[in-house]
Amino acid sequence: MIPKKNSSAFISTPPKIKKILVLRNGLLGDTVFITAMLHRLNSTFSNAVIDVIVGKNSTEVLKEFPGIRKIIPFNFNFSATSILKQTRFFLSMSAERYDLVIVPEVNPHYTLMAKLSFPRKLAAFTSSISKICDYHIERPKQKAVLADTRLVTDWTISDEPDKARLYLSEEEISEARRVLSTHGILPGDKILFFNPGSSKQYSEKDWGIDNYAPVADHFIAAGNYKIVFNGLPRDKEDYAEMASKMKYKPVLLCGENTVPVRIMFAIISLSELVFGVDTGPIHIATAFDVPVLCLMGYMDQNDTGPYHPDVQAKVLTSSMPCSPCVHTNPKPAQWDNICRNQRPVECMKRITPEVVIKEIEEMLK
In sequence order, what DSSP letters do the residues of 240-257 get, joined into one string? Predict the structure, then answer.
């Protein structure tokens, strides 16, 4: 880690920082993780403009976020042709003359690309090319919101506890209420938001769509809750088959009823609780101070698990000795024998609907 006298220069002369660039590639959840950092940057460098490069499918996350001038999509893969395009792209950004570029990525590729924009100062997590950075630290092993924010905490200030945060317009909230009303959900109704899937279809994260049916039925019957299932156009048949096994009718936001991502955010903000696997909507819920119950087996809750300093953000696992194995190499023996071709994988399969119902009941109290 660079001596603190170097890091203190960032905070001791904030008026000299006029332009900041943050680079964080990834999906929805990855972008949510850096919002606590962005809040700190706004608080510390109040007169600076902030540009953010995020994954091409994540630009919607930061709309309405205060202090951000530009949200730039990262539209590149890692082919040889793409590397040349990335080089030209970052070289072209040198015209912006950024005072500070921040790269909350451990991958040295992103640090090197950021250096090509020729910033006055470069901050990144420690990697094989850390010598090109003005400031670097090891990325701590903790929940991603806190881990990403740790890169800037030595030289930024915050008037609130570090947490994910997102912002909506009144128009987006009004549109969400309108969409809900078309499905019979009115202001005052209590909503439980279920998100069974993730970006990868039939992922190792999945719990199994049929497991959600008895949970949804229970809360519609016992608690007079409205159940909203969030999905994608591809989920229409799977969700319809699941709903056909239910006693009560849920709202299925999939197929032609799939809602735009910002309206999905607004519906989450209006919910009593969000339940699902480790994916974007879980982390979006924490940014709106909505309690979450996240099922995790394959994934590591101490890395990408939900986090909130004040609101319930719980993880439910089956506690198998081989779980989590997302970062295990080589994988446990049962991965090849059982889990590789089984969905849900064994550690997710062992979480029962009865246990989930009990946990949600406790949270709703």
Answer: HHHHHT-SS--EEE-GGG
Tens of pLDDT, residue by residue over 217-263, are 999 998 789 999 999 999 999 999 999 999 999 999 999 999 999 99
Q: State the Cα–Cα distance between residues 285 and 153, nearest whole angstrom.
A: 24
Mean pLDDT of the residues in the chain: 92
Contacts of 62 (CB under 8 A, 6+ apart): 31, 35, 38, 52, 54, 68, 71
Alpha helices in the chain, H assignment, sequence order: 4-12, 28-33, 35-44, 80-92, 108-115, 144-149, 170-182, 212-223, 236-244, 261-269, 280-287, 301-304, 333-337, 346-349, 353-364
- Domain 4-155: assigned CATH number: 3.40.50.2000
Per residue in 194-219, pLDDT (tens digit) is 999 888 888 899 999 999 999 999 99
**What integer pLDDT is reported at residue 2 of this predicted model?**
40
Closest alpha carbon to 52 in 77, 24, 92: 24
Contacts of 184 (CB under 8 A, 6+ apart): 226, 251
Q: Which fold has domain 175-364?
A: Rossmann fold (3.40.50)
Q: Do the domains spanning 4-155 and 175-364 agree at the CATH topology level?
A: yes
Please state the domain extents for the chain: 4-155, 175-364
The pTM of this model reads 0.93
Tokens of 265: 């955010």
Can you tell me whether residue 20 is helix, strand or coil? strand
What digits encode the pLDDT tens for the residues 273-301? 999 999 999 999 999 999 999 999 988 88
Bridge partners of 195, per DSSP, are 276
**Distance, CA of 225 to CA of 237 (rounded, Å):** 24
